[in-house]
Amino acid sequence: MADATLRYMATHDSLTVWWDRPDDAGAKRRYRVMVNGEMERETSVTHCTIRGLQPSQTYRVAVRLDADGSGRFHGLASVEARTTAVKRVLDVTQPPYYAVGDGHKLNTAAIQQALDDCGADSVVVIPAGTFLTGALRMHSHTELVVSKGATLQGTTDPADYEPYIRSRFEGIEMDCLSSLINIGELDHDGPANVTDVTIRGEGAILSGGRELMRNVIEREKQRIRDGRSTAPAAVGRPDGDDTVPGRVRPRLINMSNASRVTIAGLTLGQSASWNVHMIYSDHIVTHGCTFRSKGVFNGDGWDPDSSTDCTVFDCTFETGDDAIAIKSGKNPEGNVINRPSRNIRIFDCRAEFGFGITLGSEMSGGIANVRIWDCDMSRTSFGLEIKATRKRGGYVRDVRAYDSTFSHIQLHGVPYNDDGEDSGQVPVFEDMLFDDVRIEDRFPASGDARGKGRDIEVCGFDAEHPAHDIEFRGLKITPTQPGEVDPDANGMGNIRLRFAQGIRFTGDCE
């Protein structure tokens, strides 16, 4: 629901609008959001939530831009946005569901029945309390609201996440346990099979965290010994004893072949692995959420995987791995399926802990048209990392980052997650711009060496396969320690270029 650049999400009494950063927006930019010709708000970020509206009403929302702080505003974008009707409430604690939010009773059947009963004119509501549940499934045209003071709490028992479903983990299609919330069914040759789903509220959706993670891995090791697991058939050389059994872990929210899914306002976390994972999906929007998974192995926050037109904004991350990881499959399967991740937008996001924003290492289907702006990843171990293994194939291209802070920016090959047959092709890193970005390492784990090293690293794979056509414009580097600069870096910081062509440092770099 959009014109060329202005998009929106509607409830019965609010509109959340967002737009791309204009090319001419400078450091002193301001936006005015107008509703029916009246100014609603002036802001420096590219999104706004408008509250106190009437149901089933159309509002003309327009955004005006002052690009340089001069006070001269001009029209940027507009849209006719309509609020929804007031929906029929399906309260899971009321008849015929009778869910109990005491943190002890298992409510899977009751909540699933409410979701099954939900149609386009209704909404499933989780009221205040802690509602223990196993795996749940949402169909098209459904809405789930987790209210303030409410927690949808996944159990720590792997049996509650059965049956196994077809999914994808670390680039390999395989049978995994069902996630806490499941949307769609996996089909790499097919279109979306679930559409128009909303999950929102001011509450929390949490899973079993480290305990569930360990329980799944130990159970799967026994299944491997008993010959009942399909996991080993899909891999060549694992990275450790937990790698193969760990790949069947459930996610928190999994979308497979889904379209037009919105996740908003919630605290999300403590998955046994990745938290929000979208596979072969499109038009997925996540905003206003807090991700918490510190201490969880592979505890990624938000992972588009061979998915397109995915947007995350106004989110905070404290994760046990990547805050955001963009993927598109692993060699050779990912090369054959050949579904890239494209048109990814990440803005006004911040991290308190974790690895940062990652493109790869599973990128055999390609990654293109990624835009990042107004983000702070300075408190992460890697900042912004673009990575692959040499035999992976695929590409990462057309990446732009603006007005953001990272602990590091690194483009390179990595030795881990390297199982699978050689694709026969070397990955391509090309066509990237980092404009007005700041390098400042504020990673809070002082004894953790992850990510330490070069402020900027651009490394291709060999002389015939260089990283190329990459520009740093207006780069600013704050050394971790006074005087900590590379003597070969012309005073700009600790920079390494290897097997790199067409690398430019322009503007006023510091």
From TrEMBL:
Record's keyword annotation contains Nucleus: no
Family membership noted in the UniProt record: Belongs to the glycosyl hydrolase 28 family.
Disordered: region residues: 223-247
Protein name: Fibronectin type-III domain-containing protein
Record keywords, A-Z: Glycosidase, Hydrolase
Annotated CDD domains: FN3
Organism name: Bifidobacterium miconis
Stored InterPro entries: FN3_dom, GH28_Enzymes, Glyco_hydro_28
